[in-house]
Write a structure and sequence with these properties.
The protein has about 200 residues and is α/β, with parallel strands linked by helices. About 30% of the residues lie in helices and about 25% in strands. The protein is globular. The termini are far apart.
Length: about 200
């Protein structure tokens, strides 16, 4: 687990009896990747699938996954949920259907993700939140980053990347945007964000 939250107990007179510690829950918010997460048959385990493989790391135990899914990817979502259950039975998966008419439109994506986030109940004192930005369009990844940076999402960034071998679960990296050292990350991310958004607008025009 990523931390512990203290739980205090008192007797009838109000005196503290004991200080217990309850493991904090780790919650991941992520977008299902129709391309990166796809796969059927036994051979699907030979390729890196970020939403499944992030649950295959012993040093990252996910208690709950809040997974956003487009209506067109509902069948893929069922396969992914079953595969997560097989590698991480302790993980509860909640599916959320989010329909983007244009998943590359910044205004639409940001608005829909913001509405989703505002509809959630966050308990930072009891849960650690990780925002997975390795799936979805570049615009979706940028919007996840911006919502986390603005503290609409009280969590940290979770970045996953493929490994080098067949069946390798790849790598995971947690980025805390509250750290002063994240300035360089922010500058590079904003530069990449600007490039992708400009390219998209040019293509639309």
């Amino acid at each position: 687990m990523l931390g512990d939250a203290p739980v205090r107990r008192y007797d009838a007179s109000g005196y503290e009896l004991i200080l217990l510690y309850m493991a904090r829950k780790t919650v991941v918010l992520s977008m299902l990747g129709p391309t990166l997460d796809k796969g059927t048959g036994a051979r699907r385990w030979n390729r890196w699938r970020p939403t499944v493989d992030l649950h295959r790391h012993e040093d990252l135990v996910v208690d709950r996954l809040e997974l956003l899914v487009s209506p067109q990817a509902s069948a893929l979502a069922e396969v992914v949920v079953e595969d997560i259950a097989s590698v991480s039975p302790e993980t509860t998966v909640h599916l959320h259907t989010v329909d983007f008419s244009d998943p590359w439109d910044f205004e639409e994506v940001y608005t829909r993700l913001l509405d989703f986030v505002r509809g959630q109940s966050f308990s930072p004192s009891q849960e650690d939140y990780l925002v997975h930005i390795s799936t979805g369009t570049h615009v979706m990844q940028i919007c996840w980053f911006l919502l986390t940076e603005a503290r609409f999402l009280p969590g940290r960034i979770l970045q996953t990347s493929p490994g080098s071998g067949t069946g390798d679960p790849g790598h995971v990296r947690v980025i805390d945007l509250d750290l002063s050292s994240y300035g360089a990350i922010r500058s590079r991310f904003e530069a990449v964000s600007y490039t992708h958004l400009r390219a998209h607008e040019t293509g639309r025009n």
